[in-house]
Amino acid sequence: MSRLAFVGAWIGCFGSPMGAQSAPPARPSVIVVRMVERVPYGIGFDPVRVTVQPGDTVRFVQAGRMPHNVEFRSVPATADLGEARFGPTLVSVGQTYDVIIDRGFPPGKYVYVCTPHEVLGMAGIIYVQERSR
Ligand SMILES: [Cu+2]
Q: How far apart (Å, rounded) are the C-alpha atoms in residues 78 and 23?
């Protein structure tokens, strides 16, 4: 906080219009989750857990050779994921699949799996926070 205040004051010295404003609202972020296969821990989502805010995008990136997808298994009762509940299968390296955290994703805990590899423990969690303003 003190560092931010210092920077703000420093910018203000140069007459920037930014200097007089309060902190800008947080902008939507893209959070990358890679689908990986590696030794010795096997296949999985990396990172396994991510925390996001409404408006963010969770971007799944195929980084392995096996087909992977994202199927939500345990979500808040008020969630309405629509087609995002069962995502497409990614087959080629670098292919991506975006899950946009829109109104269908109210704050809470979202557990998902890769359908063909669930038995191997390929699962992850998205925590959707309240918008922090
Ligand atoms: Cu998989």
A: 32
